[in-house]
Write a structure and sequence with these properties.
By secondary structure, this protein is an all-alpha fold. The protein is built from four helices and no strands. The relative contact order is 0.14.
């Protein structure tokens, strides 16, 4: 999508948009005000407002990831090494289905 628009770093923009969309979803699910969500994430409410409107300049992938973690999101990162190398790899992001955690008691 961003590549079609001729924007610089289209993959970075795509990843940031996914992170921002997830931040927005979590804020809504937790029924947080922008003020409270910004406080949890360690940013100002005006910065959160800009971010949620798609203005990601000044927000690195690392910073957005840290914001998600502060909201209670647990990112899962995995690497798939192909049997044969022939083309560049790709980044895949998806929301995992909610699973109840089970505590394992030591015997």
């Amino acid at each position: 999508m961003f590549a079609d628009l001729g924007l610089e770093d289209p993959e970075d923009l795509l990843h940031k948009s996914y992170f921002v969309s997830t931040i927005n979803m979590v804020v809504k699910r937790r029924r947080l005000t922008q003020v409270k969500a910004a406080e949890i994430m360690g940013i100002s409410q005006p910065d959160l407002s800009k971010l949620l409107r798609g203005r990601t300049t000044g927000f690195s992938i690392d910073r957005l990831l840290a914001m998600l973690v502060s909201l209670g999101v647990s990112p899962h990162i995995s690497f798939e090494v192909p049997a044969k190398f022939g083309r560049p790899g790709r980044v895949v992001m998806e929301e995992l289905p909610h699973q109840e955690k089970q505590e394992i008691q030591a015997a």
